[in-house]
Specification:
Four copies of one chain form a homotetramer. With about 300 residues, chain A is α/β, with parallel strands linked by helices. Chain A is built from twelve helices and eight strands. An eight-stranded parallel beta barrel of chain A has the order 1-2-3-4-5-6-7-8, surrounded by five helices. In chain A, helix 1 links the parallel strand 1 and strand 2.
Chain lengths: ~300, ~300, ~300, ~300
């Protein structure tokens, strides 16, 4: 199976985990949403991230999800989020999913890390725990983790932990961080792949500053595929026009907590998942919220038609 | 001078505080930016909020800013942010600005408050400190303060602290909170004015759910004025069309930290302030960021022309 | 096997989890340290708490530890910490350990809870997840969790979640909370057992205010047994004299992070565990720290002899 | 007036700020408590720290307190806490108190700092703001500030900001940090004075590891004076015996929030302040708490008599 590396590009969708209304895993919907993501042109998938409700799964369920998606992805790379409070659980899940054919694993720093030294030390331990040869993605999401990784500290991680091949860039604001990392690479720092999160909210600017693609879960991944392709072709106006058409919904999905409810509602409207339910505890879209999402989707379709995309 | 009350509506712009490149207060620019805000149709202003770099001012400077803006506002209401680590400073500044003709004061909860009881107790102390008759705005901005005020707790504040006449709504996500408060009011809770923050990022939805207007600092307040007017007239499509034209820049300004640099850059481009400088410590827009803002403004102008607004 | 209930009293030691120097579980040492705890007069044990390095174990290891301690405890009650980021893992481990004969489970609130309503809702979900009949311990440790549970909110939990039979009291400061809860019970609130943590640092005062005992892991549990017995007999001077003799070491063990290293060093000196090692990542006592602990133990022995306890 | 420098030693008491029951400043009590501190053998004082309720004072009150204490101290050094949300207020108060004869100023990092680079940058700005020649104390109190300063980062501050002459060491646990800083100094890092906080809870160990004294506010500063003197004389057993006699009360005062109420109660019992009141909002010692403090003082006196100190 393919592994990610420092040259990985394109759109790698953060997959939702579908549940039935009673909270049971819905593996048929998981197949369908996998098909939707890949059918939209995604290069790969990332599963069991925060937006995949990973902490709500048992380890056995996590393995079942990984097995199902990897099988369905037909050889396209699947990165697995393995963040956990302790290294033992990280190691156990990493071994399981790499055996199943995962392309690499993604780890966010635990909330308590405060000094640069402790962040660096943590990723060294993670690499040792994951085992030689397992590609690592550093998830840099300070809004959720409370951990700030400066470009200089990220450079020390890159220098000290060769298994780190990718940054899931989700700092916010983080545009200057992309510029700083690419400048450091121009001055000799080892290159990594930078794929951007935050629901795609800054994707045109991120691509212009040197990102390699997106790793996030917006319910219409065709937007990200189109923006990344247009940016790769150097047509930033085209990229931005397409982006702008989707932006009202991107913005809505980017709300903490309720954003996942909006995302699942949109995927349910698209027929990809049988229920928009989250496993508890989870936020529920009220009636007004559901109507807001529906309205934004309808307006989006009109605008895409005006762009000649409908 | 006018006081705010529970019926206050419209757009009340959170004003920037202009500085020269050396960090000195620039009161001439303060006049010009006041004119820009009011010329765009704002009903009032709010000064010395977080985006006004209030903690970077001495108390004497704070009073100078308040005096200048109140004089320039020509009778339109000016709310003053008076949040401080201690009640003595809150009381001192409140007395000073109310004497100068402020329309009310705005207070965010201090970061350490954790229980609902302690939040309620805090606002009771603030009201006593401010003194009878001073209208209070509760600034509800958990992303910055770390303090979560549930709708039920806000209801207890409304019941227990009659001076609270307004919610500066900046929870995120907070749409359901507006709906919950309006529902409680329909069931008998005392009505307050709800003005929304977050740079206007959810303004159409907020108006549809019952907000009375905006209290935020987007550099093109004419957007907010237009959206609030269209919503008040019941034309939500018109509101959203206008909003969408500005959304790429709204989104850019909404980045924590660097967003204020983008906002000041835009106001500087508009000729309202002589320098985009923040007083230190402050984030500086890099060259790529300045180009990004300029590009978004140019695209915004094209789109407004297409809407017949240019 | 016995279950805890609202009348549970005495000392329930928070057990360390012994590891070999290479990080492997050391089950023989686990037997010995269990013997030490019970031999000192403890009424019961609590395993897989934070000081038991629970997040560093896999689920299989957690079950192995629970099985071993429950077997060794010879019928004395063993509470198991099952806190986890998601309810599925809590439910899975709860079922496993209750089947093994645990006396109940302990759950700390997740770090993100901010409003009183969300805390109450969380414990209702935990009770439903654990299943009817499983006794619950609320771990109230805001220094670690960031979640503040006021006495009023705890009262709502007691009223709404009948399975909650015990408070592991680890608020700091928390003496007034014990008084408030006992006063509420005098006014009709359902009684719960209150066992106190914080390494025993306030045990005499806690007993005087109405606590039922201790649930904490100080390396010399005979101190806690003696203090609880003296307090139960109404001899507070005797309780305090005994406490004071151990206090210099209690204080040293109560340091965050390094305190566990000191505790394991002391248990290793006592011959209960074969190695003071923590599983990584963990703090290591430097040479000066080891000497400090040794010195405090030697001074403690002298002082106990002077008290006629040596 | 004297300035502190890198050779400053001894006990520098963090002074309480006395208030009347109605919240008014009580300057007569401020004189008496200053006399008590210096009469106990303190080398100097530190005012307007967190335990001095500094954020509850207006700037005018802060200056009044500083003027009064500096006048009363009769030439002994008085450090002033000037931490504030913005540099302008820091600069304003620094200039005022240095003009009044302060010995230096103390600054804690603001809560938001997360990367080592931002901490270093902050202290460089503070030094520039304070002005050349003003000695700076870095207050390292992560429990309150949330900011972790590693020994390496502190070394960079020492190298980059020559005005920093002292560390108020209040990390917890922090014994290894003292050892690390002294080791770095042995390897060439510029020496600073290290005075320890945390209410003296680890003072014997801190002195043994190389601290120069204490900077904290325990209500019986004669304990700290005696411990520092015995440690300086190399008699660590004597230091510890004295310490142990006071430890039950030291521990009690070290509780967050309520600890200040206990401290003021003890100083009121000693006749140094006319009222134990804190300015609101502040925690109030309940009747049981007052009795606990009284009991601990009575036991302390008995034990000191047994040591031949009564």
């Amino acid at each position: 199976m393919p592994l990610i590396d420092a040259t990985t590009r394109g759109v790698h969708v953060i997959a939702v985990t579908p549940f039935a209304g009673d909270g049971a895993l819905d593996l048929d919907s998981l197949d369908r949403v996998t098909d939707l993501y890949l059918g939209a042109g995604a290069e790969g998938l990332t599963i069991l991230g925060m937006m995949g409700e990973a902490p709500k799964l048992t380890q056995a369920e996590s393995r079942a999800v990984a097995a199902r998606v990897i099988a369905r992805a037909g050889g396209r790379p699947v990165v697995v989020g393995v963040s956990a409070p302790g290294l033992a659980a990280i190691g156990e899940l990493t071994r399981a999913v790499m055996d199943l054919g995962a392309a690499g694993v993604m780890v966010a720093p635990p909330a308590g890390l405060r000094t640069d030294e402790s962040i660096l030390g943590y990723y060294a331990l993670v690499a040792e725990t994951a085992g030689a040869g397992v590609p690592l993605v550093v998830q840099d999401f300070p809004l959720a983790s409370g951990v700030q990784i400066s470009p200089a500290t990220f450079g020390r991680i890159v220098a000290g932990v060769p298994q780190v091949v990718m940054l899931k860039h989700e700092d916010w604001p983080g545009l200057a961080k992309i510029t700083a990392i690419r400048a450091a690479e121009a001055a000799g720092q080892r290159r990594v792949s930078i794929l951007c999160g935050n629901g795609g909210l800054f994707l045109p600017e991120e691509m212009a500053r040197g990102a390699d693609g997106a790793m996030t879960g917006f319910a219409f991944p065709e937007m990200m595929v189109g923006v990344v392709a247009a940016a790769a072709a150097g047509d930033m106006d085209r990229a931005q026009d397409l982006f702008d058409a989707y932006l009202p919904l991107v913005r809505y999905e980017q709300q903490p907590g309720i954003g996942l409810a909006a995302r699942k509602h949109a995927l349910w409207r698209r027929g990809a998942i049988a229920s928009p339910a989250q496993r508890r505890p989870g936020q529920v879209l009220d009636a007004a919220g559901a109507a807001e999402v529906d309205r934004l989707i309808a307006r989006q379709e009109r605008r895409l038609r005006a762009l000649g995309q409908g």
